[in-house]
From TrEMBL:
Lineage: Eukaryota, Metazoa, Ecdysozoa, Nematoda, Chromadorea
Polar residues bias locations: 333-343, 351-360
GO cellular component, one term: cytoplasm
Residues the entry annotates as binding ATP: K60
Reactions catalysed, as given in the entry: L-threonyl-[protein] + ATP = O-phospho-L-threonyl-[protein] + ADP + H(+); L-seryl-[protein] + ATP = O-phospho-L-seryl-[protein] + ADP + H(+)
Domain named Protein kinase: residues: 31-285
Protein name: non-specific serine/threonine protein kinase
Keyword presence, Phosphoprotein: no
Matching InterPro entries: Kinase-like_dom_sf, PIM_Ser/Thr_kinase, Prot_kinase_dom, Protein_kinase_ATP_BS, Ser/Thr_kinase_AS
GO MF annotation list: ATP binding; protein serine/threonine kinase activity
Organism: Caenorhabditis brenneri
Names of required cofactors: Mg(2+)
Family: Belongs to the protein kinase superfamily.
Residue ranges with Basic and acidic residues bias: 303-316
Classification via Gene3D superfamilies: Phosphorylase Kinase, domain 1 (3.30.200.20), Transferase(Phosphotransferase) domain 1 (1.10.510.10)
Length: 444
């Protein structure tokens, strides 16, 4: 009833404002929507192009019903995600919010889209695990970004490899998906919307956590995962008891320094855990990383490239596989909603509800999780452009190469269907049209 009333009120607003500056028609005028880019628990992300200058953008559609927290942005009521992105607009390592639109069904968030790019989950998966040097290159950017977000009073709350996008030309990382983000405060949080296997033990044991301390824990999980190609903990029980079993096992030879950093991030006691400041000042992080060009010239990078090439040829099959979960290597670290907080469900410590996978055959792959969002990996054309670009690294050549390749792609690659949001958008259009018609009748 309440929902219906607010929807009616929203439609009424549309009627009164006529062509809203954030309405669907304005969106359609400004952007050309293309194929689906990724999909998560709370939204669908599309490739799109800004019509006025051909800028490549990503458009995330979030359903109004899925919005858990709201905030005010320049006097307008918006989902917290939009507000948090806006607050981080000056943080280099955060994906830039370019625009947003409001339709009866939900919101369209327009963001920058690095090209070509890959998310860190697929990047690690493509290589099995990444070298310590590569981990340093990526992790120090991510840690600095999280630190800057916190300085802007933004707590991301869903730090994981899926939520980091890597620009394949420069190696620059961009933090995405602020759907669980909230304002940083000193006091404890008693709600959680992130991914359970990246969540600190105090949440499972006491149903609360402190913002910065929880972020440091997630960074520890992320770093361990990058190096080992698997997560450190299989379930909540592991998260809460692993410290009793001594140091975490490592499945690759890594330096004592990085082990030290991981153990400090994953300290069981949040008050003993290192701070974000301590992470970015840790000797392992401070060590000058190799350049992206050098790092990507190795064999492992070629492996990803080959894989991408393969997945480009079979892009629809790959997506199909991911959706049906047939890839044994990929089980589910689920992004949970508020309704799944401890106490609100019957899963307690020791439950493996967040990773409902059957035990895989290979021990090493056991904790390598599937992502909830299904990103189509870059195409071979994109990869080739990136490789070409890194061989001739002048700005002019990089972009000319990409532009040429993009034009070739235009003619050859069919776009997968993007039915969900299109249906929603179509429905929105009809409703706007309907509103206009009923508006005319009302005036008559
Ligand atoms: N600006 C962007 N540029 C490139 N890729 C993006 C961008 N935004 C999102 N993606 C891709 O789309 C996927 C889904 O995006 P996002 O995580 O924001 O959706 P979500 O529904 O909130 O997901 P989740 O359920 O994991 O929270 C990402 O993992 C990423 O691969």
């Amino acid at each position: 009833m309440k929902k219906l009333a607010s929807l009616k009120f929203f439609n009424l607003k549309l009627l009164l404002n006529g062509e809203s500056s954030r309405g669907f028609s304005k969106f359609k005028k400004n952007y050309k929507l293309k194929a689906e880019l990724g999909r998560g628990g709370f939204g669908v992300v599309y490739r799109a192009v800004r019509i006025c200058d051909n800028t490549l953008v990503a458009v995330k559609f979030i359903e109004r019903n899925n919005v858990k927290e709201w905030a005010k942005l320049n006097g307008e009521q918006v989902p917290m995600e939009i507000c948090m992105l806006a607050k981080c607009s000056k943080v280099r390592g955060v994906i830039r919010l370019l625009d947003w639109y409001s339709i009866p069904e939900g919101f369209l968030i327009v963001m920058e889209r690095p090209y070509p790019c890959i998310d860190m989950f697929d990047f690690i998966k493509g290589q099995g695990k990444i070298s310590e040097e590569m981990a340093r290159f990526l992790f120090r950017q991510i840690a600095m970004t999280v630190h800057e977000c916190v300085q802007n009073r933004v707590l991301h709350r869903d730090l994981k490899d899926e939520n980091v996008v890597i620009d394949l030309v420069t190696g620059q990382t961009k933090l995405i998906d602020f759907g669980a983000a909230t304002l940083l405060r000193r006091s404890q949080y008693t709600d959680f919307q992130g991914t359970r296997l990246y969540c600190p033990p105090e949440w499972f044991l006491h149903s609360l956590y402190l913002g910065r301390e929880a972020a440091v824990w997630s960074l520890g999980v992320l770093l361990y995962n990058s190096l080992n190609g698997r997560l450190p903990f299989r379930n909540e029980k592991d998260i809460c008891t692993a410290h009793l079993l001594g140091p975490l096992p490592f499945f690759v030879p890594v330096s004592a320094e990085v082990k030290d950093l991981i153990s400090k991030c994953l300290a069981f006691d949040p008050f003993q855990r290192c701070t974000l400041d301590a992470i970015i000042n840790h000797p392992w992080v401070k060590q000058q990383p190799l350049s992206w060009e050098l790092l990507t010239k190795n064999k492992a990078q070629k492996k990803t490239s080959d894989k991408m090439e393969k997945s480009d040829d079979h892009i629809s099959e790959t997506l199909g596989e991911e959706q049906s979960g047939s890839d044994e290597d990929r089980s589910h670290p689920t992004t949970v909603s508020v309704s799944q907080i401890p106490g609100s469900s019957d899963e307690g410590v020791g439950s493996s509800a967040s990773c409902s996978n059957t035990p895989p055959k290979k021990q090493h792959k056991e904790y390598r999780m599937a992502k909830t969002s299904l990103l189509a990996p870059p195409t071979s054309i994109e990869m080739k452009a990136a490789v070409q670009a890194s061989k001739t690294p002048t700005q002019f050549n990089v972009h000319t190469a990409l532009k040429n390749q993009r034009q070739i792609k235009k003619h050859h690659s069919p776009q997968p269907p993007n039915s969900t949001v299109l249906t929603a958008l179509r429905r929105a259009m009809t409703r706007e049209a309907q509103n206009r018609i009923s508006g005319v009748f009302a005036h008559d």
